[in-house]
Amino acid sequence: MDNDSLIIIEFYVAGLRYRDFEGVKDQLEEGMEVKLIPEPQNLYDPYAIKVMRENWWLGYVPMKGGQSMFIAKELAGGTKFKAEIVKLDPFNSDYWKRLRVSVKEEMPTLSPE
After folding, report:
1. Three-state secondary structure readout of the chain
2. How does pLDDT run along the chain (113 residues), one tens digit per residue?
3. Per the domain annotation, does 61 fall within a domain?
4. Residue 112 domain-assigned?
5. Which domain, by its residues, includes 47?
């Protein structure tokens, strides 16, 4: 059985200026995998999802448009995701446009026999 991926969502990471992004931006590259970690105890968003690379907390999946809620519910239901950096523009004057992540659902496919 091989694995294919289906793109579910792409987003610009929220909260970059408040986390580790500034200190590690030179070590990030497009194509790097990031982890999506639920943070249900978050006071502002019970569906908050941290965006992590190794031990670096880069930011959050945005609440806007229900993106964090969708991913949180899918993760709670056992859906497996692969997330990766698809756009890195660390010096963009608009913080919202500095880091873009793509989230793909791992989709098993049958191999022809």
Report:
1. CEEEEEEEEEEECECHHHCCHHHHHHHCCCCCEEEEEECCCCCCCCCCEEEEECCEEEEECCCHHHHHHHHHHHHHCCCCEEEEEEEECCCCCCHHHCEEEEEEEEEEECCCC
2. 345 567 788 999 999 988 989 899 999 999 999 999 999 999 989 999 999 999 999 999 998 888 899 899 989 888 889 999 999 999 999 888 999 999 998 766 655 66
3. yes
4. no
5. 2-106
